[in-house]
């Protein structure tokens, strides 16, 4: 099933749009993610109700997180990191991988992912991606 994410800027807030999913009982569920850039918070919603909020890191001033409406294009466990500035430089999955152990691409080379630098959460430090603590991204990934 394709997961949908939409991003829209409104006073520093991203909107990761409605996700039409069918629950085990056959009832449709609406899921979405909102991201507030100013407060660096990701919120997961189900059927219009706030389920959970996570602190995040977002793009540094020189590499800002993209703004717009997006969907999740791919999801990957144990991703390989490819340096956006030098695509020949790659880091396999593991402790030194800046993506952590989960990757959800939503636009070009941008995604929601874990991090091997949990102290960066809450900051404007990424290459434009949205970073979460590893335990949080693994929970969101499911």
How would you describe what is shown here?
- The chain has one helix spanning 134-141, and strands spanning 13-22, 28-36, 41-46, 49-55, 58-59, 74-77, 81-82, 90-91, 102-107, 110-113, 124-126, 130-131.
- The chain is built from 1 helix and 12 strands.
- 27% of the residues are buried.
- It has 142 residues and is mainly beta.
- It is globular and about 45 Å long.
- The two termini are 13 Å apart.
- It has a 4-stranded antiparallel sheet, with no helix packed on it. A 4-stranded mixed sheet has the order 6-9-10-12.
- The protein is 6% helix and 40% strand.
What is the residue-mean pLDDT, rounded to a whole number? Answer: 84
**H-E order:** EEEEEEEEEEEEH
Q: What kind of sheet is the major sheet?
A: 4 strands, antiparallel
- Helical fraction: under 10%
Poorly predicted segments: 1-12
Count of helical stretches: 1
Q: Name the structural class.
A: mainly beta
Number of E strands: 12
Between the first and last Cα atoms, what is the distance in angstroms?
Answer: 13 Å
Proportion of residues in extended strands: 35-45%
The 3D shape can be described as globular
Radius of gyration: 15 Å
Major β-sheet strand ordering: 1-2-3-4
């Amino acid at each position: 099933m394709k997961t949908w994410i939409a991003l829209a800027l409104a006073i520093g807030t991203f909107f990761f749009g409605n996700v039409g999913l069918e629950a085990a009982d056959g009832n449709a569920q609406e899921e979405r993610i909102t991201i507030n850039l100013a407060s660096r918070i990701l919120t997961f919603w189900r059927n219009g109700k706030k389920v959970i909020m996570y602190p995040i890191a977002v793009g540094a001033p020189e590499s800002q997180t993209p703004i717009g409406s997006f969907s999740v294009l791919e999801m990957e466990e144990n991703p390989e990191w490819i340096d956006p500035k030098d695509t020949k430089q790659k880091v396999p999955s593991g402790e030194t991988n800046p993506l952590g152990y989960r990757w959800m691409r939503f636009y070009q080379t941008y995604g929601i992912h874990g991090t091997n630098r949990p102290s960066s959460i809450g900051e404007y430090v990424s290459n434009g991606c949205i970073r979460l603590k590893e335990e949080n991204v693994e929970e969101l990934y499911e």
